Amino acid sequence: MNKAKKIPSDRAGAKAGTPDTRPLPEQLAAALAWLERHATKAARDGMARFAIPSDHALGVGMRDIQALAKTLGHNHELASLLWDTGVYEARMLTAYVADPALVTAAQMDGWAREFDNWATCDTLCFVLFDRTPHAWRKVEQWSTRRDEFAKRAAFALLASMALHHKDSDDAPFRRSLDWIERAADDERNFVKKAVNWALRSIGRRSAALHGDAVALAQRLAESDQAHTRWIGKDALRELRSPKTQTRLAPKKR
């Protein structure tokens, strides 16, 4: 018989929903201590395989980060302190602990300026930013940013919204295709992959958007720039695939 896991004395990792009444610095210290206990050298060394810098990382897997997040719940003040540590896993934890209703536009800008890898960028966009009331404004603003990861955030956020906002009107997504076309001339790897992700995600939303996305992908695929052609051709492969056609078929009838 498996022994029950002992609840840590520092309370990080305690039962979900249990309020933590300690001062915020103590809560922060407990969360960091929990992460350190669950870190492994193998996980830290393996980050390089996924193009994630490990300079400020402990080496904690996402499953453990998410498990800790469940016990902490939403705690927006703690989320800000976690981000300020600069520790990779603490910043990933921020995505789950921050309250999307309390995230300000200025906070989003500040965190986006400090993105230094695709994983932190995508996790905050996919888990947190796309549930804030500032999401559309930030997509438009960040789509012209010069910094690689801040610009990636625009399209990672757009892709996340296309996937999650299932009841939203198609109109804003149709307008966003102009931002995608404009950014498709950016040859930087992490930007072009996010632009491609956004285009594919929008094309899978509805039959009408599928047609618009395919038309844009065709234009991009005919570009004289290799990176732009890749965005278009890769998007066309998915948008024209039997899987996508089957997915959209009920919506076309």
Quaternary state, please? single chain
The percent of residues in helical segments reads 55-70%
* Mean of residue pLDDT values: 92
What is the C-level CATH assignment of the largest domain? Mainly Alpha
Shape: elongated
Low-confidence stretches: 1-9
Rg estimate, integer Å: 20 Å
Q: What is the beta-strand fraction? A: under 5%
CATH topology of the largest domain: Serine Threonine Protein Phosphatase 5, Tetratricopeptide repeat
Under the CATH scheme, the architecture of the largest domain is Alpha Horseshoe
Taking the sheet with the most strands, its summary is: none
β-strand number: 0
Describe the structure.
By secondary structure, the chain is mainly α. It folds into two domains: 21-99, no CATH class; 104-247, Serine Threonine Protein Phosphatase 5, Tetratricopeptide repeat (Alpha Horseshoe). The protein is built from 14 helices and no strands. The chain has helices spanning 24-37, 41-46, 62-72, 76-84, 88-97, 105-113, 118-128, 135-142, 148-164, 171-183, 189-203, 207-221, 226-239, 242-252. Helix 4 (76-84) packs antiparallel against helix 5 and helix 11 packs parallel to helix 13 (226-239). The radius of gyration is 20 Å and the shape is elongated.
